[in-house]
Amino acid sequence: MNKVGFTTFSKKYKELVEAYLKESVSQLSAPTQIKEAMLYSLEAGGKRIRPLLLFATLEAFGKKGELGIEAAAAIEMIHTYSLIHDDLPSMDNDDLRRGKPTNHKVFGEAYAILAGDALLTYSFQVISSASSEAIPTEVKIQLITELAKASGAEGMVGGQVADMDGEGKDLSLDELEYIHIHKTGKLLAYSVVAGAMIAGANNQLLEKFTTFAHHLGLAFQIRDDILDLEGDQEIIGKKVGSDEQNNKSTYPSLLTMEGARQSLLEHITLAKDALNSMELETEILKEITDLVANRNH
Amino acid sequence: MNKVGFTTFSKKYKELVEAYLKESVSQLSAPTQIKEAMLYSLEAGGKRIRPLLLFATLEAFGKKGELGIEAAAAIEMIHTYSLIHDDLPSMDNDDLRRGKPTNHKVFGEAYAILAGDALLTYSFQVISSASSEAIPTEVKIQLITELAKASGAEGMVGGQVADMDGEGKDLSLDELEYIHIHKTGKLLAYSVVAGAMIAGANNQLLEKFTTFAHHLGLAFQIRDDILDLEGDQEIIGKKVGSDEQNNKSTYPSLLTMEGARQSLLEHITLAKDALNSMELETEILKEITDLVANRNH
Q1: Which residues form the signal peptide (chains A, B) (predicted)?
Q2: Does ipTM surpass 0.85 in this model?
């Protein structure tokens, strides 16, 4: 696939998921202020990389991405709730997110906590609401189980806890990977695996997608750590060097910058190897993999 | 049913759900500290009225309560997460809950937020994990949909928002009921309706159970308001008169104490009328209704 093909794909599905997010929250029969707080962070932009991964996986099977709209929206709701809660004063205490004031800066802490809770809760409802013709009921239950695992104590929340506990400590590479695999990796991996489950993949293929997503997730995080040191503040939307300032262990701090770049390259290669081992149309997934390796924000 | 019968029922199912909660959280593959924070609040006691309602509803159909163990545990997880988040400094800022230090007082705010998030997330996983022989997959999806509605922006979270916005304002009775129906009523009602759904109730019966639960929920809240003014601090586990001190509109403040007692009685009567209109064994549900009307904590 050429760049034009990917740009078309990306634009189409970003618009699709953003329209769905807006519509599904707006129509809730709930106090206006909580809907505004939910929408503020859902609409704060971002690359929508998780939904795009899900849509691209469906397309790899020759399926329409639209089949996965509910799951894609649910993942973005979970991702967004985690950002809102992570930014809170008692957590990372961030004032800015993607260059905009964080949720609690605009709506206050209580609303930010509740908007996160509401998004988290709604994500499961959205998946259950998918039509049974599009997604068999048994698959919906699997999607819900795996989403909860990826985002709860055994996944993202567990990673956030380990991240907090690791602050100010010198972590080993294993400890750092535990954090990243849980804090960001599991939900990224879920995005791909959910697409494959909706497409009706067999277990062998699901495993290959899991391997792909594992390496993609680590590549994503290594790139994040590199950007924190070398990125352009205007583009990444937060202060450069904030990890160092917060005494955070990162890939560059453990491996040197050169070592981090090398590790990034290895994970990208392993991710693509996994894609090449499938007999599927994985061109868009490869584009996304390159995007992750080279992104500047 | 006599008092002895109810005591036996209550003891049996409290133990059942408490053992399930402990076991299911303990076996999570997650950092020890987050499991401790989750268990601390899950094990803080309480009447377990929501699980008991669910089990009693199943027994009304002549079904074993055990069929509903996952749903009962999920409800208690949601209820517990909501207490942890409501107690936070940016919300109600409570130091005590059931006479014990609140979650954030013991584990700190960040952990309290994350323990709540993890419990909320896990609740959906627990329902999905029920065996398909016990609960057909289609019913599990319904249970998940309705749990999300009862606890999210259209339910409990919406009620909490309305409650916060109403603080210090003179509310009308309609506004006060909106708050209670959403903040506590929907999850109480869900407990009953979930039991009926698992038992395979038809729509007509589901509606009768909804009516029962609606009145039970309002009775519960009116009793709560009365206890806040007349309760024994040692027994209710928090300061008497705290609503008044916080300028909160309550049933006694809107209706006078006499009016509140009258309204409590009316809702209890309507709740029992709904039970009497079913051709089911609703004795235990009536016991719980009396318990709600007369409880002293």
Answers
A1: none
A2: yes
